Amino acid sequence: MADPVSPLAPPGGFPDLPPVAGVRLASIAAGVRYTGRADVMLAVMDPGTAMAGVFTRSATRAAPVLDCEAKIGQTGAEGAAILVNAGNANAFTGTRGVDAVTAITGQVAAATGLPEARVFTASTGVIGEPLPHDRITGALGDLVQNLDPGGIAGAAQASMTTDTFPKGAARQVEIGGKTITISGIAKGSGMIAPDMATMLVFIFTDARIARPELQAMVARLNAQTFNCITVDGDTSTSDTLLVAATGQSGVDVADEVAFETALHAVMRDLAHLVVRDGEGASKFVTVEVSGAADDADAHKAGLAIANSPLVKTAIAGEDPNWGRVVMAVGKSGAAADRDRLSIRFGDILVAEYGWVSPTYREADAAAHMKRDEIEIAVDLGIGAGAATGWTCDETARYIEINAG
Amino acid sequence: MADPVSPLAPPGGFPDLPPVAGVRLASIAAGVRYTGRADVMLAVMDPGTAMAGVFTRSATRAAPVLDCEAKIGQTGAEGAAILVNAGNANAFTGTRGVDAVTAITGQVAAATGLPEARVFTASTGVIGEPLPHDRITGALGDLVQNLDPGGIAGAAQASMTTDTFPKGAARQVEIGGKTITISGIAKGSGMIAPDMATMLVFIFTDARIARPELQAMVARLNAQTFNCITVDGDTSTSDTLLVAATGQSGVDVADEVAFETALHAVMRDLAHLVVRDGEGASKFVTVEVSGAADDADAHKAGLAIANSPLVKTAIAGEDPNWGRVVMAVGKSGAAADRDRLSIRFGDILVAEYGWVSPTYREADAAAHMKRDEIEIAVDLGIGAGAATGWTCDETARYIEINAG
Description:
Two copies of one chain form a homodimer. Helix content of chain A is 32%, strand content 25%. Chain A has helices at 63-72, 94-112, 133-138, 140-145, 152-158, 211-224, 257-276, 295-307, 309-316, 322-331, 362-369, 396-403; strands spanning 23-28, 40-45, 50-55, 80-88, 119-126, 167-175, 178-187, 200-205, 229-230, 240-245, 284-292, 342-345, 348-352, 355-356, 373-379, 385-392.
């Protein structure tokens, strides 16, 4: 917890997120594991709210994730609540973990007057230890009393584990003369942080949209944002993205490109912030793959590059080692033809037609590698498939954090 | 090259490998890249030799690999030659790379009197640089003159790149009152070492076996040995395993379990030696998965554990962090049920039925983690599928080597 803030953190600090009509939040220090800091947050949405969600596909996912999955498909538009605790992931805790979720969702329902099926929870922190759920339910009275439309900054703080800074992003968009607000928060510092911390994302909007359309939009945008980031390729047991649309703007956005564009921007910003807080990260890396047989192949090749320990350590060493990029493409399983491959670092053409470019000078690429933000672009020269992903470098600090 | 020898190297040094009838080897300092050391080896096998091989599946595999693949399926039993250089992988070198292979195989054929289709090559070292093949062909006269049945130790040395020790293994087996010898060498220090070094394995035996049977046996054993090791999950563009059976023992081994068992042992020993020379390795780790839906699922779960940066850094830190093992199983894609999973570190039962075991004491597991050789056993509790894999830990030294 005493780690210095990541060098890739936004210089301006946590942004001033606009409140979203129909959403109130509160946070509190409940002593789940940490002392002297807030570790539980509650968000309560007014009646008329559509909920959408995307969750980890891990086969060993945690009890709160399984509970959310069971509830998210319901098409009601009552009010809803999200309760999050940090410090204990309630993962791999057997039937006691299920009981803890039931206890919490039951008591949140009682305290807020919502049906239990509309109470979603997420837990993040150590795994394999029983969740002291009575500390959470014991704090519910205070939480409900302190619900506030401006509570989102505190909520972002309360859901942190090994994060070195809180993460928020927002957009406002005008549709039909009315303003629609989207405000979101995220936590995560690596796909998995030392104590099995995980990625949690909560986004709130006053747009009006039915659940099926919202779910489809969130799934589509998730494929282009959170599913395109990696810190270490280790997938958490608790990853949760929940989007709540209260409808209070009165504007129907189901077919509004401007809304989808704004939601995409919020999700992409939050995804980038998670990478910028990647464990030990010193460089933010964008990987662009084009010319693949299809988009899925491009995604596959991009993730192989972004997850390769040898690519990531080369970046940490500011070494324009394009041979490792060739290796990663080769192992990815994407269709590739060595003799059609071209590679750029930033604007610098490194290799083309299966060999180093005649114009390439290593000094140019080395200068690009000294930047905080690196771009690796690979054209497979086969088709029209394209994808973009984001990662960070792998430094000795990553080992210190995780072997410490 | 000045790295100290891996702490996991066998204490006895390079073993005394028995010569194989019908095989002569030589090595020489040809100055391909290194100075002051042998960097080219040649093995020549007498007429009657069956050749089998297994190669990297990388889509960006190197020119020598493509040439070997094109030749290996031929069923002839003439003599054969293997020429290997270290220091330059002749990978991602476009048509010039193909020309270099053609030049080398043509001149080896001329110097040995073998058909060109029976000359196999492997190159390991930096990629993207043209192979100075004239330095190799210029040394052929001396190589051929110095061919010797006892030349295998020198050949193992000549094929090293970032390896910290040469690797050899042998078995002799009695069948029908005659002795059959199997002697093999390997190079590799990580799947990929700093300059794109790769795994190369050459095994020689005087057993008599037709090519199709030998190929099937080698492929079967490869799946249980070299395909079960990982250092960093990064697959090389040059991985090559060649097995030459000269037939000179006169003993047909196609259906001899004793022979297959001995060949398995040689391949497993060499695979373990590659892991023991893994970049920065301080622990040798055996991962055993049982109770999977099938063997393929067990292999998948085992490799996910063995490749997980968080598992490997925990081992480096001597931390019995079983939560990371749960995470790796969950992300592997293997069918798993959290509530049937059990985990052991060595003899210590850590978790069962989806939660920490009531008998588990962290001090016991912590003591196991202090050993040089660690065992992680996972039972998925679903079926009868099983697999064993081997890896090493991930230390700060790995980052130093690769970001340096």
